[in-house]
Amino acid sequence: xxxxxxxxxxxxxxxxxxxxxxxxxxxxxxxxxxxxxxxxxxxxxxxxxxxxxxxxxxxxxxxxxxxxxxxxxxxxxxxxxxxxxxxxxxxxxxxxxxxxxxxxxxxxxxxxxxxxxxxxxxxxxxxxxxxxxxxxxxxxxxxxxxxxxxxxxxxxxxxxxxxxxxxxxxxxxxxxxxxxxxxxxxxxxxxxxxxxxx
Length: 198
Fold this sequence. Notes:
It contains 5 helices and 10 strands. By secondary structure, the protein is an alpha+beta fold. The protein has 2 domains: 115 residues, no CATH class; 58 residues, SH3 type barrels (Roll), CATH 2.30.30.
């Protein structure tokens, strides 16, 4: 599980981003995950109203959502938005990841200088799509034949994930949320490339 959030609207969308332990998530795996999690959602009923379920991979320019995520991508670019401005009044940061220690990210900023940011203070963070990131993703990708049989890994996830629906990230109005963050062309798509929607 990479991220779970509810995006507002007349009929809200429950978006679940997930990947296998090796970092892959094919369209077939998204479909199998969706089938495995649907009975849990029906039983737990985390959203009172009618909603759409969307299961996707995190994509190459993946969101970074928890402590430890940044340490895996040292040397790559990231954009970070804090929940509230820091001591210097700044909320948005763009730079190269230097490292992460005990939940504190060190970033070399594109506009000069550096920043140390607490992961717990971040409202939103994601990798920036660069040629270097694309090359790294290609290098990690397993051969196609290894992606074919993921049924056993996904069957049984329902029980394991039933406890994970206590903490849902809810956005009342997705358009307003994106505008409030100053979304630009790099943030135009926050969905992974492999996606199943019901």
